[in-house]
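#onboarding

Welcome to the new folks! Below is a worked example of what a typical request in this channel looks like: someone posts a single protein sequence, and someone else replies with the predicted structure as tokens. Don't worry about understanding the tokens yet, we'll cover that in week two.

Example request:
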Amino acid sequence: MSTLRRRLPMDGQAVGPIACGSCDLNEVCRLCGLIAFETGAARQSSGALRTIEPGASLFRAGTPVHSIYAIRQGMVKTVRVTEEGDEAVLAIHTPGEVLGLESFGSGTYACDTIALSRVVCCELPLPMLGEHSARVRQLGSALLRLLSRAAVPRDHPARGPVRQRVTTFLLDLAQRLSQRGLDGHRFSLGLSRQELANLLDTRVETVSRLMQRLHRERAIHVEGNLVTVLALASSTPTH
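Example response:
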């Protein structure tokens, strides 16, 4: 079994890589023959890894769907371009999460996906899902479980007082990384202050001021884009 490197990320460094067993797409990949069922077996050659450089797009809104992707390393933001041409940040995605699932219903991708750091993705072409009729029942069940997990509603980060939005976002990101076996204590934020303000529906000055306040209160330690979680949970207001 491969050993996951838990290196502390430097500012702007990609988060990960993640172990296959911690990825949401793991069961589907095994049933499609992309990875073997036996523990410790090497990845088979039928899969595809894609590398996306910071600022580059994995797929664009409105383009025909051809694959779904699992993030192996790095972080990705999903954005929607408004009628005025402004970019609205919808969410950020961490290693182990799957992109493109919304396209099953429409046949086209719904959002732009842009790499926040150097990203490595596992690509699963959709035609491969129809090439495994011997396991169609198992594969269908696996896909339903994957879609069910993706359909669970998440609290929108732009709700509540602004301080609560910031602390909840940081705690959620830390928890998501920890659940994948990555470092949820110290990590690169990925988003710029302007992008974070966009996501949380507030002003960049407000986000910067709150991050500095949390730093002074020793709830977090901030160094550039690198955040260390110290006592953030105790500083989050409860209702």
